[in-house]
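$ ./design --mode recover --in tokens.txt
reading tokens...
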């Protein structure tokens, strides 16, 4: 069997361990792996590269993806998908493994339906928002990066008795904000899943300062709003009577860096499962993880709503005394 592998959408730390696992697991069983560079764009343009065991050496600790990634709008059009399918035939690809998030899996499902090729997805997104699976590759590293940054911000916030608004990634979801906020002892966590009126924030700040807190850190998901806009709102309402108000957007630094041991190990396990599933004759779906077990889930489940950890959010508020 010749297995194609590609990464699509936003990169995620841990993609390289997945690629390494797929290549070496397949090779150990006598099968070939072909890398498709730049995701669906590479499918359209025929950007393929043979991957052997030695080609994936020394990449476990590298962030991003050696195969590169992209967001390719052309893949929505049948004309370009047909061009992609022709390229798969030319390269004699028998099956496909696709790394990415919900949007990527929509493309993967189209390939499976329109070509009949077996296609298996592996959830790789720092947002951790793929439905049907407890874990997505890249989330643990992004969380570590956010926690590390907020810990550093707290040092200067305390030294200058400031109010800091820290905006973290997650698109429309608050997974990173909730766990990073709890782990760093943030005074307030704002996520799109909960309607916390910004009109109540000045009172939260006043109460904390009257309790003797030197700083006030708000961790907010980008899906809740923009840190700079909230800063302007607070300046209008309370000025700087409780300390200078600063806004920090962590941005793409959350995606970079050395993958954590969790993302490395989970990446290797996800990759092995994907290969074994393809060799067993499974047609389509994505590798999911729940309560310590791996299984194959329908692509459509990826778009279903997955809730944040409400208990973590509750605990954070209880501990903010």
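writing sequence...
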């Amino acid at each position: 069997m010749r297995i194609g592998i590609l990464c699509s959408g936003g990169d995620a730390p841990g993609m390289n361990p997945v690629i390494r696992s797929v290549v070496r697991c397949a090779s150990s069983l006598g099968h070939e792996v072909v890398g498709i560079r730049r995701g669906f764009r590479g499918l359209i343009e025929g950007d393929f590269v043979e991957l052997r065991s030695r080609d994936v050496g020394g990449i476990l600790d590298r962030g991003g993806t050696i195969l590169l990634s992209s967001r390719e709008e052309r893949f929505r059009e049948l004309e370009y998908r047909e061009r992609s399918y022709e390229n798969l035939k030319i390269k004699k690809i028998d099956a496909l493994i696709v790394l990415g998030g919900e949007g990527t899996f929509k493309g993967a499902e189209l390939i499976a339906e329109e070509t009949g090729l077996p296609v298996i997805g592996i959830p790789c997104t720092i947002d951790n928002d793929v439905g049907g699976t407890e874990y997505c590759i890249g989330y643990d590293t992004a969380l570590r990066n956010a926690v590390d940054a907020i810990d550093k911000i707290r040092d200067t916030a305390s030294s200058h008795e400031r109010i800091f608004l820290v905006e973290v990634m997650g698109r429309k979801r608050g997974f990173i904000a909730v766990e990073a906020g709890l782990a760093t002892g943030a005074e307030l966590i704002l996520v799109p899943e909960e309607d916390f009126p910004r009109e109540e924030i000045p009172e939260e700040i006043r109460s904390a300062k009257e309790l003797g807190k030197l700083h006030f850190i708000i961790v907010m998901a980008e899906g809740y709003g923009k840190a700079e806009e909230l800063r302007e709102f607070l300046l209008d309402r309370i000025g700087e009577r409780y300390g200078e108000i600063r806004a920090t957007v962590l941005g793409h630094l959350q995606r970079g860096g050395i993958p954590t041991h969790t993302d490395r190990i989970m990446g290797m396990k996800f990759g092995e499962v994907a290969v074994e599933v393809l060799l067993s004759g499974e047609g389509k779906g994505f590798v999911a993880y729940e309560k310590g077990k791996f299984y194959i889930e329908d692509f459509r489940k990826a778009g279903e709503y997955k809730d944040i950890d409400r208990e973590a959010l509750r605990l954070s508020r209880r501990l903010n005394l």
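exit 0
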